[in-house]
Amino acid sequence: MNEQTPVALYGFLTPKPGHADELRELLLGLVEPSRKHAGSVQYQLHEQDDGRFFLYEVWRSQEDLDRHNETALLREFMREMPEHVDGAPEAYFGRPLSSSR
Predict the structure, then answer these.
(1) Which of 98, 81, 67, 95 shows the shortest CA–CA distance to 26?
(2) d(Cα 16, Cα 91) in Å, to the nearest integer?
(3) Model pTM?
(4) Are 63 and 3 in contact (CB under 8 A)?
(5) pLDDT of 9-25, one tens digit each?
(6) Which keywords has UniProt assigned to this entry (predicted)?
(7) Across the chain, how many H-helices and E-strands are there?
(8) Which of 26, 46, 47, 58 can bridge 54 by disulfide, Cβ–Cβ 3.0-4.6 Å?
(9) Which residues touch 54 (CB under 8 Å, ≥6 apart)?
């Protein structure tokens, strides 16, 4: 992927027992600020019936995603996340083949 190719990041986070509310609040706190970051095309958070959280992000380029990941917002989330997530997040990267419409 070159720097101008859109990139998607998506995956599941499983809360530790008794930590769903805390993890939900942390994730919800990312949505609106992240949507305002340069290069954000789509930023969606879903809660699955099994209690896992599904996060789907599309960025204009890898450079935009990298810049987003370097923000204080993301650094703080990454610092707090392990306390509330059971195991490692299940994360994937891809290249969108259709628009987010």
Answers:
(1) 81
(2) 17
(3) 0.89
(4) yes
(5) 999 999 999 999 999 99
(6) Monooxygenase, Oxidoreductase
(7) 3, 4
(8) 46
(9) 10, 11, 12, 45, 46, 47, 48
Q: Is the pLDDT at 93 greater than 50, yes or no?
A: yes
What does the alpha-carbon distance between residue 28 and residue 93 come to, in Å, rounded to a whole number? 21
Q: How far is CA 73 from CA 5, 29, 33, 91, in A?
A: 24, 9, 8, 19
The third-level CATH classification (topology) of the domain covering 7-94 is: Alpha-Beta Plaits (3.30.70)
Amino acid letter, residue 66: D
Instruction: State phi, psi for 73 to the nearest 5 degrees.
Output: -55, -50
User: What is the C-alpha separation between 85 and 7, in angstroms, rounded?
Assistant: 24
